[in-house]
């Protein structure tokens, strides 16, 4: 009996240890993100790194995935007067962006998101935290998703000078699709915000990093905040 109790206690102890390790890892990851977030704000990344691209001009094509209120696109257009495609599947946000740029013939607003397949999904609407990969406190809305490769083919787009990706967890499926299809090679600059609340987020992000590094160089990174990549071949243009 003592042996059985001892084994049970040891097994239970291992379970508690495993739970403790998981909690410790999550706390460490959160601590790291907080540090990077502080560095991001200290470096004024939203007004510098996310907007400063020496190779953008009025002939450039920019994709804004996760348009929300359209402020980033507005800032990019103000600097470079380039053609911009904004993808915003949430109806209210889409209508607001469409109205905002209604007199700008260089900005095209789409009422769907780009993804790895043509589909419909339910999104939890909560401002810039709206997400199809987690529940948030807002309303739920059905949205449309378009397969990225098909959209590019249908619109005869053979090069993207800058793609901004902030789609609250859906970035993993999208980037894996762009990489596996080879379309990643036509994208000159990428800025992406990875989100840690997606299951196995860190491992999926590292695998994407590994694959992406074959075609792009990492220019700057603030872990799980924002990071920027530049195409190894297209950057010489």
Note down, in words, how this protein is organized:
Helices cover 38% and strands 24% of the residues. By secondary structure, it is of the alpha/beta class. It has a 7-stranded mixed beta sheet with strand order 3-2-1-7-8-10-9. Helix 5 runs parallel beside helix 6 (201-212). The N and C termini lie far apart (76 Å). Mean pLDDT is 87; it is low at 7-17.
Q: Topology of this structure?
A:
Blueprint: H1 2-42, E1 61-65, H2 71-80, E2 83-87, H3 91-100, E3 107-110, E4 113-115, E5 119-125, E6 139-147, H4 148-154, E7 160-165, H5 171-181, E8 187-192, H6 201-212, E9 216-222, E10 226-231
Parallel strand pairs: 1-2, 1-7, 2-3, 4-6, 7-8
Antiparallel strand pairs: 5-6, 8-10, 9-10
What is shown here, in short?
The protein is α/β, with parallel strands linked by helices. It has a single domain (61-236), classed as Vaccinia Virus protein VP39 (Rossmann fold), CATH 3.40.50.
- Count of helical stretches: 6
Report on the biggest sheet.
7 strands, mixed
CATH superfamily: Vaccinia Virus protein VP39
Share of helical residues: 25-40%
- The class by helix and strand makeup works out as alpha/beta
Number of domains: 1
Looking at this protein, list some descriptive labels:
seven-stranded mixed sheet; 38% helix; Rossmann fold; alpha/beta; 237 residues
